[in-house]
TrEMBL record:
Keywords: DNA-binding, Transcription, Transcription regulation. The keyword DNA damage does not apply. This is Transcriptional regulators LysR family. The keyword Secreted does not apply. InterPro entries: LysR_HTH_N, WH-like_DNA-bd_sf, WH_DNA-bd_sf. It comes from Vibrio maritimus. Residues 1-60 form the HTH lysR-type domain.
């Protein structure tokens, strides 16, 4: 027997919605059309899939049994479609996404997860780079996408530019540090005399006057190492405001409230990409991953 994807989609939708009307809305079809598709499928398999009554549509025992096979078949068809789309990009079997070191790892992980979902066959290199390195990589096309701090960025004619938003930075310290127990009106003076761990990429990109508060500060190249040093109570740091979304970070760090820097520091972040038609769908996928992160921390 040969079944169409339309039939399987109608069967799965009616099974999950328990309603021809709701299934029709989900599929963009009229309820009577969905009902006819189901009736034709039942004739084809010689099995009654649903018991109809005035209030609900209930799967029969055979309907329950066949549902998981229909669901699997639809999922496999979707995967086939995504793989075929990925392969259709020809030479774009791999892309490089470069990003500033201050970006939370969770954001990058959600981007990669979205790319796997949308382009299963696409190989992706994820590289920490400075704004200038990303600019150079886009110029020589060794990098296809860049997620960057654009505080002092100048325009590039061959770059597609999408503003993501402002990423707020606030002070963090170990939950067990002296800073964590100070009254809010005493915090600012304490921050100025306590060792500060500063992300080097923020300094390299011209933000030293905004991010360096303590004369006693260390420049750190990696966000993960900055977190580790701060967790051990060796100092404090400015980090993205909602980085405590990570359970591990939340168990070890706390945001330090400070009257004089209540608003924190906001770093504008943008997605740069080459102006290329084959990259447009991949860019949409990256943006979906970014949107997932924004929704999560919102």
């Amino acid at each position: 027997m040969n079944f169409s994807l339309e039939q399987l989609a109608a069967f799965v939708s009616v099974y999950e919605e328990r309603s021809f009307s709701k299934a029709g809305s989900r599929l963009g079809k009229h309820r009577t059309t969905v009902g006819q598709v189901i009736a034709n499928l039942e004739d084809q398999v010689s099995v009654e899939l649903f018991e109809r009554n005035t209030r609900s549509v209930d799967p029969t025992q055979d309907g329950h049994f066949l549902y998981r096979y229909a669901k699997q078949a639809l999922d496999q068809a979707k995967t086939f479609d995504k793989v075929a789309l990925s392969l259709s990009f020809g030479e774009l079997d791999a892309v490089t996404v470069a990003y500033s070191s201050f970006l939370p790892h969770l954001a990058i992980a959600l981007i990669r997860e979205q790319l796997i979902d949308d382009f299963p066959a696409l190989r992706v290199s994820l590289l920490v780079r400075t704004q200038e390195q990303i600019r150079e990589g886009l110029a020589d096309e060794s990098i296809q996408f860049g997620i960057v701090n654009v505080t002092k960025a100048s325009a590039m004619s061959n770059i597609d530019y999408t503003m993501i938003g402002n990423m707020p930075f606030v002070p963090f310290a170990s939950k067990y540090s002296d800073l964590a127990s100070l009254p809010e009106d005493q915090v600012y003076d304490a921050l100025k005399t306590t060792r500060q761990f500063v992300l080097k990429s923020l300094v390299d990109e011209g933000l030293a006057n905004h991010v360096v508060l303590s004369a006693n500060h260390d420049l750190i190249d990696q966000l993960a190492l900055t977190i580790k040093l701060t967790q051990k109570g060796l100092g404090w740091t400015l980090m993205p405001k909602n980085i405590e979304t990570s359970d591990y970070v939340a168990d070890n760090l706390t945001e330090i409230k400070c009257e004089k820097i209540r608003g924190g520091l906001s770093v504008p972040v943008a997605l740069w990409s080459l102006q290329s038609k084959p990259l447009m769908e991949i860019k949409k996928s990256i943006q979906k991953g970014i949107d997932s992160y924004i929704e999560l921390i919102g």
